[in-house]
Amino acid sequence: MKEEKKATRQSYGEALLELGRKNKNIVVLDADLSGATKTDLFAKEFPERFFDMGISEQDMMSTAAGLSTCGKIPYVSTFAVFAAGRAYDQVRNSICYPKLNVKICATHAGVTVGEDGATHQMLEDLALMRTLPNMTVLSTSDDTQTKWAIEEISKIKGPVYLRLARLATPIIYEENEKFEIGKAIQIGEGTEATIFATGITVSEAIKAQEELKEEGINVRVVDVHTIKPIDKEMIIKCAKETKKLISVEDHSIIGGLGSAISEVLTEKYPTKLTRMGIKDTFGKSGKAQELVEYFGISAKSIIDEIKKEG
Q: In sequence order, what are the beta bridge partners of 74?
């Protein structure tokens, strides 16, 4: 990993501007949060293609649905708690049911929102979004991957939910890294354990991997950037090749990455999976990194789990 850090919401804003320059059908909608979601970068250059809908998230989703029927490709942004929570009905019935071409890019997900506290720390969005028919669900881990995803999802015909973070995290991948929707990325060849991670927890998993290597414990990290469709082949491969399986996510352990992996294992290759994440509770107000430690999704927590007997 590089020393340089960047929040995936910032990467989103920069990539969206570049995409807007290349594709005139890209339109952007925001709900009075363009400074925080970084869609203000697009708005400054393309004011005629930017729509600030105010604090009206449900209306924003419906408007995006309408724009998509006119040949536009709407990118819709607000905090995850509003995009997946407040506007769920419109996402379900107005976007997913008719399979409309709307890209929902939700920022400020997870406990790493920090001081805003439980009301704004969306821990259920992956669970909600992946259960919706026709929805593709992504959760990117760094600047490079996010910039790839912003352009790549414009090529998909249908609804997409992309989860983005407020917290600045290390840049993991080189600019020329190849990604594919639905294909997880294996980092390392260790056989002691597999750490499945997504979003901000990928960098925590890599930190754990590096520290464990110094102690002679070799593990692999799998960056699951696509939650739906999930990479079944990678999950089964790692279950066969490694002694322990762990999932770690800045999300509830109910319904998110760990649940998606468990569903695959149950049907294809029954194996024990330890799910690390937020354990059926709401978040708390605090500094982002302190909350990562508090809720047990840090590199240290991962190391402790791998070293446990049994």
A: 27
Distance (Å, whole) CA 282 – CA 61: 26
**Alpha-helix residue ranges (DSSP H) falling in 140-270:** 143-152, 201-214, 232-241, 257-268
- 148 and 205: one domain? no
Residue 232 C-beta-side C-alpha neighbours within 13 Å: 9
The verdict on 116 and 11 lying in the same domain is yes
287: CATH: 3.40.50.920
pLDDT tens digits, 14-63: 999 999 999 999 999 999 999 999 999 999 999 999 999 999 999 999 99
Q: Based on the fold, state whether residues 137 and 200 are members of the same structural domain.
A: no
Structure tokens at 212: 């464990």
- Give ∠ CA 67-73-78 in degrees, rounded to 5: 85
Does an H or E element contain 62, and which?
helix 57-68
- Can you give the pTM of this predicted structure? 0.96
Q: Is omega for the bond preceding 74 within 30 degrees of 0, making it cis?
A: no
Q: Report the distance separating Cα 99 and Cα 92, nearest Å.
A: 10
Q: Give the pLDDT score at 100.
A: 98
- Told to judge if 18 belongs to the known catalytic residues of this protein, a careful annotator would answer no
Residue 250, token pair as written in the block = 């800045």
Residue 124 shares a structural domain with residue 219 = no
Are 105 and 231 within one domain? no
pLDDT, one tens digit per residue, over 129-172 is: 999 999 999 999 999 999 999 999 999 999 999 999 999 999 99
Integer CA distances (angstroms), 237 to 38, 208, 233, 275, in order: 38, 21, 6, 18
**Domain tally, the chain:** 2
* Catalytic residue selected from 4, 45, 57, 189: 57
